[in-house]
Automatic annotation (TrEMBL):
InterPro entries: MetalloPept_cat_dom_sf, Peptidase_M12A, Peptidase_Metallo, ZnMP_hatching_enz. This is Metalloendopeptidase. The keyword Transmembrane does not apply. The lineage of its organism: Eukaryota, Metazoa, Chordata, Craniata, Vertebrata. Pfam families: Astacin. Residues 1-19 form the signal peptide. Zn(2+) binds at residues 164, 168, 174. The keyword Kinase does not apply.
Amino acid sequence: MDSRASFSILMLLVGFSQAFILPEQRLADLLTEPEDVDITTRILETNNGSTEILLEGDLLFPKTRNALYCLTNNCFWKKNANNLVEVPYIVSSEYTSNQISIIQNAMASFHRKTCIRFVPRSSQIDYISIESKSGCYSSLGKTGGKQVVSLSKVGCMIHGLIEHELNHALGFYHEQTRSDRDQYIRINFENIAPDMAYNFVKKNTNNQNTPYDYGSIMHYRRTAFAIQAGLVTITPIPDESVSIGQRKEMSDIDILRINKLYGC
């Protein structure tokens, strides 16, 4: 057989194999992103110039409550008759089919590991609306009625970043602002512009007897909000070499907290 014909047949077979790729393989492909760009960098760069008032980079103002410390339970999403927590959602038609697949794959990671179920909205009053606005951001917990989770088509279509914003919608703060953080990290305020220091204010959080998680999908990188490139704003203690600010997938502790919070 002619070598060119053999090559053409080989390429055709490769094309067929890609068309029938297994879901697990497809998810692995979606998770493969350049290692040098973490969630914090992508969020802050994408949200630069946003018309929204954002706290800590990607939380819609005002933050009146959070599911980790909610006295009335109104900021929790509710369980259905099957003991599954339903979060109704709609997705804007402005996304491509591939972008919708990325969003749905991020949702599916919650389905596999927790009792959270993101379900297409029918007539539910409380729901999230996933839209491509000017950045990557979310409200904190269930706020009632329609609440926007912004996932810009340019900059936010990353598996771990989408998990990050959906975790905010479930009610979770950033890890570096939890109430006991001073035992585990040092905030270097001298490397942070005074008008940006509010992004590091500790929150009144119920930590559910779970350990501080340097590897949380909700932890910002060590140079977040630095006044100059390369300056460290978050230092792990006592071991400064500990890695923080990953961007791939929810950690085991992230998953544990969701399951404890929602009684999975």
